[in-house]
Design goal:
elongated
């Protein structure tokens, strides 16, 4: 009986994750989708550089910029309303 208990404990001992390694194992799964601040910053700088190079800000009047933002927000609202309608239609048995 004692030998069986000892063998069981020895066999089950390797099935747990040591506390120090758990974070590393989790990161191995999440690494492809983690936020990379350095790449994001470099990409943002590249975009800003391209905008400055072609003078994109000179092509848009300040008041028109506000209209574009408001149009975009209205379109986003319409999309959310339509998605909610679809969920209501397809979610109702």
């Amino acid at each position: 009986m004692a030998a069986t208990l000892l063998a069981s404990l020895l066999l089950m001992g390797g099935s747990t994750i040591p506390p120090g390694e758990q974070g590393a194992q989790v990161r191995s799964f999440t690494r492809p989708i983690e936020f990379d601040f350095l790449s994001w910053t470099l990409d943002a700088l590249a975009v800003k550089g391209k905008q400055l190079a072609v003078g994109a800000s000179a092509y848009l009047e300040p008041q028109r910029g506000g209209e574009i933002v408001l149009d975009f927000l209205d379109l986003e609202r319409q999309i959310r309303e339509t998605e909610n309608q679809l969920q209501t239609i397809y979610g109702d048995p």
